[in-house]
Write a structure and sequence with these properties.
- GO terms for molecular function: 2 iron, 2 sulfur cluster binding; flavin adenine dinucleotide binding; metal ion binding; oxidoreductase activity.
- Its EC number is 1.17.1.-.
- It holds the Pfam family NAD_binding_1.
- Its cofactor is FAD; [2Fe-2S] cluster.
- There is one protein chain.
- By secondary structure, this protein is α/β, with parallel strands linked by helices.
- It has two domains: 4-100, Beta Barrel (Elongation Factor Tu (Ef-tu), domain 3), CATH 2.40.30; 114-243, Nucleotide-binding domain of ferredoxin-NADP reductase (FNR) module (Rossmann fold, 3-Layer(aba) Sandwich), CATH 3.40.50.80.
- Helix content is 24%, strand content 34%.
- The protein is built from six helices and eleven strands.
- The protein has helices at residues 79-86, 124-137, 158-167, 194-203, 219-231, 245-248; strands at 4-16, 19-25, 41-48, 51-61, 67-73, 93-97, 114-120, 142-149, 172-178, 212-217, 239-243.
- The strands form two sheets. A six-stranded antiparallel barrel has the order 1-2-5-4-3-6. A five-stranded parallel sheet has the order 9-8-7-10-11, sandwiched between helices.
- A hairpin with a 5-residue loop joins strand 4 and strand 5 (67-73).
- Helix 4 (194-203) packs parallel to helix 5 (219-231).
């Protein structure tokens, strides 16, 4: 059911020079409708130039029951992403659909798991919700994140990831890969692809130990990563993948 409600924008926070996090205030009467499984997305609706546009963006977090946030990264030629970047402001009201989508994971307090997340660029957005909820709910579980970006300046959620690492120093491992920034180690230089995952397997990670593997990013990266992880010992039924849905509709 495509149920939209008018929600007020509580905050608009820059993540990078071309990405923002938009936080909506949820009235108490609607909070049950906006409960979400980490990994789901919201559809935003707006009328631009006389045309109704709808765009899907992954939920990155919900700090309190009365708030829910999505991250929007500008896309070349993207009418809605430009609108979000430059025109959406605190106090505005937008039409927002209730959470949708099958990607994600519902943490279970009694579970003790080893989880892997692989994210490229804005593919980090649903991972933020999944990682933070899992570490908070499953005190015996651990997460490893492989996060690829062009450079540290283009990296979304830099401070939020640092805060998570400080909160869970023994249970969260973050491996940053940069394709256009010099690194001290060649292992951390380059894009997420099959060769890079094999290098990480040779020097840093035993991929066969992971109970679940979450992958989000461009479709080609996801396909290659999944094929390589199967080669490296991750069972086929352990994959949970999600293409960047907001790139399909600009």
């Amino acid at each position: 059911m495509t149920t939209f409600h008018s929600l007020k924008v509580a905050r608009v926070e820059p993540e990078t020079r071309d990405a923002v996090t938009i936080t909506f205030a949820i009235p108490q009467a609607l909070q049950a409708e906006y409960c979400f499984r980490p990994g789901q997305h919201l559809t935003l609706k707006a009328r631009l130039g006389g045309e109704e546009l709808r765009r899907c963006y992954s939920i990155c977090h919900s700090r309190t029951p009365g708030e829910i946030s999505v991250a929007v990264k500008a896309i070349d030629g993207g009418r809605f992403s430009r609108y979000a970047q430059h025109d959406i402001q605190q106090g505005m009201e937008l039409e927002v659909m209730v959470p949708q989508g099958h990607f994600g994971y519902q943490p279970q307090a009694e579970r003790q798991g080893e989880y892997l997340a692989i994210a490229a660029g804005s593919g980090i957005t649903p991972m933020m919700a999944i990682i933070s909820a899992t570490l908070a709910t499953e005190p015996q579980s651990r997460f490893t994140l492989i996060y690829g970006n062009r450079s540290s300046h283009s990296m979304m959620f830099r401070q939020a990831l640092a805060d998570l690492k400080d909160r869970y120093p023994q249970r969260l491992q973050v491996i940053h890969l940069f394709s256009q920034e010099s690194m001290d180690s060649d292992l951390l230089q380059g894009r997420i692809d099959g060769d890079k995952l094999r290098q990480l397997a040779d020097h840093l990670l035993d991929f066969s130990r992971f109970d679940e593997a979450f992958i989000c990013g461009p479709a080609a990266m996801m396909d290659e990563a999944e094929a390589t992880l199967r080669e490296l010992g991750v069972a086929e039924n352990r994959f949970i993948s999600n293409a960047l849905i907001h790139q399909v509709a600009m």
